[in-house]
Design a protein that fits this description.
There is one protein chain. With 469 residues, the protein is of the alpha+beta class. It has three domains: 108 residues, no CATH class; 173 residues, no CATH class; 167 residues, Diaminopimelate Epimerase, Chain A, domain 1. The strands form six sheets. It has a seven-stranded mixed β-sheet. Strand 1 and strand 2 form a beta hairpin. It holds the Pfam family DUF6687. InterPro entries: DUF6687.
Length: 469
Amino acid sequence: MTTLLALHDGDHAVQFDDDVAARLAGFELRLLAGRVVAIRENRFIDLQNLIAGDGAFTRDGDPHDLRRRNLGTLHYDFGGHGELAVRDAETDAARLAAALAGESARPPSPAAPRSRVQAVRLSPGDRLAFVPFEHARDVPNISADATHNAATRLTLSHWPANRTPARYKANLSTQSVLRFAAERADAADVRHVTTDHFDLDGLASVYGLIAPDHALRHQARLVELARFGDFARGRSDAARRLAFALDTVAARASREIGATDDESARVARLFRALLPALRDLLDAPPPEELWRDADRHHAATEALLDHPDAALEQHPALDLAVFRLPAAPALRAGAARRYFGLSPIGFHNRTPLSTLAIVAHGDVVVHQRYEGWVERVSAAPRPRRDLSILARALRAAEPHACRWQYDGVQHIMPRLGHDGAQPSGVPAETIVDELKRLLAIAPAAWTPTPDARRRGDAPSGRTASGALG
């Protein structure tokens, strides 16, 4: 039997098999980048792959029909003919139960009881105050660096499926906020700013709405800060150190907050600590103790990437950059960590391509960058491919006791790699070659910018050695 569940906006419904629909109580359903995603407490679940298995697709191309009979899965085999095989959806009740464990018993988010969270203000005279997303569902709000809810009067965000007015759209939410702030516009009935998470683009966006005059005086620095925060790239030493300093303040605040099941309260406390910190650090250089360690880590990554034995191979047609790193003790057994434990800034500053394969000590880690998750108004990357197809093939080919995992196409910055129990038994160059073949044939799986135009200034394919800057 079929059950219809409404998307958040209420203008579309999604078809599910009854057993799936029964487990989705308590989740908000949204269509993001062409896929239906279940969201609760800022946790995103790609329902296509959850229901059908890795590499799922809709047979009729309609993302609103997620019944198993309309779902298939794409399979890829190492050493084959570089083709995708289509198979039926994999019915797996245990997978559904594990992914949604405990959630179906909860009431939907809008009705869930909420602890009282006091609005966050920088000063008593501020016109706007910050409240976390779950506490802004029934108060008029401006949604910054997030999606919208029923009470949202204005969205200023680069999220997929955002409702940002065209004149404010930008690659970073902070840029959208500053364009709005520069107009000195006034939303008469709005007294609250909201977002559903904490990061530096969100922090700068909320700050730009609460303290617009001060933000406009520092708009270049705020945009650089947001770029370092979301995209982990940029050339400004001062902005990078500001980002590192704020990350340190946020880490200290998180330790003070400790473990909590109340995500809204956690987000509110982070903004309560970080908004005044940002205000103060915009006017004076941050203390070295706040950024020194992260900056040394970044410098060590730069030195490694500048090593004569380092190489970068770029494939613009595949949106793939392959970094081959020299042997270094710090990288040994590092395949279980993101970027082999290195600073992502060094990698991102060296290529505009959004799928990165990093090869070191015979192992491979693949990352898909944040730029491929958000809607962009310029330099939109090739739509993201679902690397769960490759993860399945790697698990089948792996002779050693290590398990390959992919975070999921719906994740902001998904990683494909193994658990690091021991080095992979699949040769690194085999993995890279199969990744290239898969990227050449796999369909788009995440399209946040529907009419994304191809990058006109992409580098031509080449191999470079040493001095990759």
